[in-house]
Design a protein that fits this description.
single chain; about 20% helix; globular
Length: about 290
């Protein structure tokens, strides 16, 4: 499935990723509406990774401009108390958004956004909390389809239709799932296996990764270094990597040089795209990869 991804992601300031064909927005940082304008009307489902302000400050304006009965649906980590407060405020401030759906989600949920497509929340370690608490999430977009079981593959179309009438389609079909896209949100590198066999992986890389920057990670919420991400990607199977959420302390040339060097070091052969600090990137996948 061809996807059109528009993105802005600068650590501390704003992050959002819009997946146009499926009407999904991951995070809702400042500047979202002024960039997308009328395209924002295509957003039906919003998946927020956590309550840091750089990921939610565009949410009220998005909701105010686009609210309609039942949409947008705003999904958020179930134990984050900020979102019920935000929902209450928005509905008091803008009465026209009262039919927007705000829904808490947790790891293990499967949220169908279309008949053949769902989103799975995945717990991550960005916010230091007890294991049973969910305040920060990554997300995975999964496409589902029905396939004839191998033992019935020899049957003709007429025979399958007859069997469906007698026993139902589930008697000879099985569900096949394809991981179209993964969105890390803000998170340290944890279990790379969760992203194995993913088509497009969008991953944060806040710090380039020398000792000075790793030391910075000891304060507050946790992030990834670029080298950690590239090392993880070298051990899994993906089709494309999009890197974002870089700190604005780095110059674009420094970021691009580091990405290329690490692609060579870890033999990363899949296309790699970069969302540089301060830049809105339209149709990310149409942009030339930095490692080609």
């Amino acid at each position: 499935m061809q996807l059109t991804i528009t993105a802005y992601s600068t650590a501390l300031f704003s992050t959002w990723y819009f997946i146009e064909e499926i009407g999904v927005l991951f995070d809702a940082g400042e500047g979202l509406i002024s960039a997308l304008l009328q395209k924002s009307r295509k957003i039906d489902q919003v998946f927020i990774s956590h309550a840091d302000r750089d990921h939610i400050t565009g949410l009220l304006q998005l909701n105010q401009l686009n609210a309609r009965p039942g949409f947008p649906v705003i999904h958020y980590p179930k134990d984050s108390g900020s979102f019920p407060v935000l929902e209450k405020f928005s509905k008091a401030f803008d009465p026209q958004v009262t039919r927007t759906i705000w829904t808490p989600v947790t790891e293990g949920d499967e949220i169908y956004i279309a008949k053949d497509m769902l989103v799975k929340p995945l717990r991550n370690g960005h916010v230091p909390v007890d294991k049973q608490v969910i305040r920060s999430l990554s997300y995975q977009v999964v496409q589902t389809r029905k396939k004839v079981k191998p033992e019935f593959a020899h049957l003709s179309g007429d025979q399958l239709r007859e069997l469906a009438e007698k026993q139902g389609r589930d008697s000879f079909s099985m569900e096949v799932r394809t991981n179209l896209l993964g969105y890390s949100g803000d998170t340290p590198v944890e279990d790379g296996a969760r992203w194995d066999n993913t088509g497009i992986l969008i991953h944060e890389a806040t710090f380039i990764g020398n000792g000075e920057h790793i030391k910075d990670r000891g304060y507050g919420n946790k992030h990834s270094t670029l080298e950690e991400v590239m090392e993880m990607v070298s051990s899994i199977r993906i089709e494309r990597l999009i890197l974002g959420h870089f700190s604005s302390r780095y110059e674009p040339g420094e970021i691009l040089r580091s990405v290329r060097e690490l692609c060579e070091k870890y033999a990363i052969n899949v296309p790699v795209n970069v969302i540089l600090p301060g830049a809105t990137v339209w149709d990310v996948l149409s942009q030339p990869p930095v490692n080609r």
